[in-house]
Amino acid sequence: MYDVVSGSFIPCHTMLDVGVDWEGDQILPALHKLSSAKVKSASAGKYSDGGGLWLVKREDGGAQWVLRVTIHGRRREMGIGNLQSVSLKEARQAAETWRAVVREGKDPIKERDQQRRLAARESHTLASVALEAFEARKSQLKGEGKAGRWFSPLELHVLPKIGKIPVEELDQQDIKIALAPIWHEKADTARKAMNRLGITLKHAAAMGLDVDIQATEKAKALLGKSRHKAQNIPYMPWPEVPAFYASLNEQTVTHLALRLLILTSVRSGPVRFCRLDQIQDNVWTVPAENMKGQEGAVNDFRVPLSDEAMIVIEQAKPFERDGYLFPSVRKGVISDATMSRLMERRSLAARPHGFRSSFKTWCEEATNEREAVVETALAHVVGNKVERSYRRTDLLERRRELVSRWADHVTGRDASKVVKIA
């Protein structure tokens, strides 16, 4: 007997397993031959439900639905799913769907693969891949990126506009459209967003997706050179610092925090989150997660404390709450803007971060200290990777001498260099 399902002659006893109906001279495969009870109780073997749908049970207890079809003279078998997850009814529905594809002259396996590729492309939107890239990069970011600053340029200015585009379809025109409104007006934010986009595209390429990793560079060419000119944070000339320091004479959290910031030349973040348990003897150990998120800032940073700095810490202890030396009025610690607003209210152009420049300029103009010591005092990465691998010291004692001299200047002990400010 000739089996239209398999396309070959088969013995009569096998034909009984296949099951056929007759219509004139045409042999039609019988459908729905299996029952739920038979599906459940059948031992290892192959069982036809008709229409090319087979249940294949293995010796190990596993079972799978298989659809056999012939397309363009070629025998094809496609898995429809395992018995545990696909019921008899669902298998029959799927089989009919794919038989309809065959009737249209299409290969069902190729059609299914194409559908899966399209579905995967739609699921790999720019937004989803950007979030995945962010998750993969968290360990390199300050506080594992919990503050969200790494992701925010994309979240605010890019993803609302082009986040739904499949990342494989993203091109320079899409990026240009997203960043054009802020390219000149918010140049720093636009630069960060472009950087994050580049990282996202590289991450997508690592996932095996077909992306244009040059899309960001092409977008920059379309957007043109930014008209925005970067401005450095205003700083206070070092001869004026003693007079300002002397004016911080109130026993308040803000005054004390500013005084410690000036004396140690660290950034405002570590000062605001300074805890008593970070200070032992005359060394303040800033945890790595409180340091600026940059390459190389992966270790705790030791800050030598001058006698004046220790005095400030003692004066701040009565304000301590939950271990923090500089708590806010309500909860947590003082905000990033608290110290800046104090200087703004005094009509000063300088800002707290600028005292790092004050210290650096003082080192260059009033001392002969080596650059490596000065840069280390500012928690900057010194030297290339090879040089850093051989360096086994953080120059703590050399820095201690330097900050002590700086404290002498700040407190006015070096009176000959002091310049009064209005």
Plain-language structure description:
- This protein is of the alpha+beta class and 422 residues long.
- The chain has three domains: 2-114, Integrase, DNA-binding domain (Double Stranded RNA Binding Domain, 2-Layer Sandwich), CATH 3.30.160.390; 124-223, Tyrosine recombinase, N-terminal domain (DNA polymerase, domain 1, Orthogonal Bundle); 238-417, Intergrase catalytic core (hpI Integrase, Chain A).
- Helix content is 44%, strand content 12%.
- The chain has 19 helices and eleven strands.
- It has helices spanning 12-18, 36-41, 88-103, 108-123, 126-137, 152-157, 159-162, 172-179, 187-206, 215-223, 241-247, 253-264, 268-272, 307-316, 338-345, 355-366, 371-377, 385-390, 396-410; strands spanning 2-3, 8-9, 20-23, 26-29, 45-50, 53-57, 63-71, 74-82, 279-280, 283-286, 301-304.
- It has a four-stranded antiparallel beta sheet, covered by helices on one side.
- A hairpin with a 2-residue loop joins strand 9 (279-280) and strand 10.
- It starts with a strand and ends in a 12-residue tail after the last helix.
- 27% of the residues are buried.
- The model is unreliable at 1-28, 293-297 and 416-422 (pLDDT under 50).
Blueprint of the fold:
Elements: E1 2-3, E2 8-9, H1 12-18, E3 20-23, E4 26-29, H2 36-41, E5 45-50, E6 53-57, E7 63-71, E8 74-82, H3 88-103, H4 108-123, H5 126-137, H6 152-157, H7 159-162, H8 172-179, H9 187-206, H10 215-223, H11 241-247, H12 253-264, H13 268-272, E9 279-280, E10 283-286, E11 301-304, H14 307-316, H15 338-345, H16 355-366, H17 371-377, H18 385-390, H19 396-410
Antiparallel strand pairs: 1-2, 3-4, 5-6, 6-7, 7-8, 9-10, 10-11
Helix pairs in contact: 5-9, 8-10, 12-14, 17-19
Keywords: DNA integration, DNA recombination, DNA-binding
Organism: Pseudosulfitobacter koreensis
Family: Belongs to the 'phage' integrase family.
